[in-house]
Amino acid sequence: MENYSQKTYLMKNGFSLTELLVTLVLSSFICLSLIKLLIHYQDQRRYHQTEFQINSQLQFAATILRQAILNSGYLGCGTLQTEQVHMHGLTNPPAYFMQGYYTQLPPFLQGHPLAKSDVIRLTQAVPEGVYLTKSMLEKNTALEVIRNPFEMHEWLIISDCHHADIFPVTSVQGLWLHHPPLNNLYQNTTQVFTWQDESYFIAETKRSYSNRSPILALYKMNAAPKQNDTPREEELVEDISKLEILYANNANASFMSAKQVTDWNAIKIVKITLTAQLPYQASWLTERRTFFVTLRNRLI
User: Fold this and answer.
1) Which stretches of 113-262 are assigned E, i.e. beta strand?
2) Radius of gyration of the CA atoms of the chain, in A
3) Mean local confidence (pLDDT), 271-275
4) pLDDT at 35 > cutoff 60
5) What is the edge-to-edge ordering of all strands in the sheet holding 283-294?
6) Residue 79: what pLDDT?
């Protein structure tokens, strides 16, 4: 009867003050630990998300630059020197098929890249050319192609592996391309390509991060849009804050900056270092990536 009374008393009166205090302390300790774990998890999640975004942007930028540099100087077949290529009316003719800049920029690029950003200019015939169906009889003979993906005022290049002409399409009539007089006559085994002249650099996007710092990005500028059009820039990959470019004549040579190169036709290897950064907490998360590209048809 006594035991029953003690149990009944405890059930009616609940925990003692000491038991309640111990329970509250333990509960608070467990809650604080869980909150700390949650905060740590959220911080780690934000960190890895930021890191993933940076590495994704670096990978995307590296892929774009690697492909562009790899094909630089491609003119349909073989390797032609600039003196074998005749340019008809280009507003911003390139001195070389690949050239780097640091401070002394050509007029069409001035005011676009970030100050002290390396710039690389790459020119090429866009792959998958179109064959002529008839040989040229005169230098101003219209070109008949097997199919016509080209438009009026577009810049094209025609190459037979010995010579090449870069010219604008003055008019299009079905499969016929009209053009200014060329320097060479071309046979029906010759291909016509779109001409591409693009420069890559870092510039501000005119947008800002949450900490009000400007967002930087990798840009490209087309120096040869349609005839009479002005060069235009295009944002490619944001969060890329720095582009560093070095050049070498062969695999055993020392790398040089753009201002140290004396013969751009002799460059065979390009070393690219990209830096990307994003704000993280009160600081920045920064990653770098370096890679090497061998120019097409030059290591022979």
Assistant:
1) 119-125, 130-131, 143-144, 155-159, 164-168, 171-173, 176-178, 191-208, 214-222, 232-238, 240-248
2) 32
3) 96
4) yes
5) 240-248, 269-280, 283-294
6) 66
DSSP sequence for 201-235: EEEEEEEE-TTSPEEEEEEEEESS-STTPPPEEEE
Neighbours of 260 (CB within 10 A): 12
The stretch 132-154 carries a mean pLDDT of: 93
Nearest to 163 by CA among 75, 282, 234: 75
Instruction: Enter the tokens of residue 199.
Output: 């420069």
Tell me 282's DSSP state. T
Contact call for residues 156 and 166 (beta carbons, < 8 A): yes
Provide the phi-psi class of 14: left if phi over 0, else alpha when psi is between -120 and 50, else beta: left
Beta pairing partners, 157: 166, 193
- Please give the DSSP secondary-structure letter assigned to residue 255: P
Dump the DSSP string for 245-286: EEEESSTTSPPB-GGG-S-GGG--EEEEEEEEEEEETTEEEE
d(CA 198, CA 120) in angstroms, rounded, equals 8
pLDDT of residue 300: 44
Q: What is the pTM of this model?
A: 0.82
Is pLDDT at 25 greater than 70 in this prediction?
yes
The domains of the chain are located at 49-294
Closest CA to 125 of 67, 166, 81: 166
Q: How far apart are CA 148 and CA 130, in angstroms?
A: 8
DSSP per position, 8-22: HHHHHH-S-HHHHHH
Which of 194, 199, 243, 242 lies closest to 107, judged by CA? Answer: 199
Cα separation, 91 vs 171, whole angstroms: 19
Place of tokens 């925990």: 15
Whether 299 has a pLDDT exceeding 60, the answer reads no
Only one residue has tokens 């991060």, namely: 209
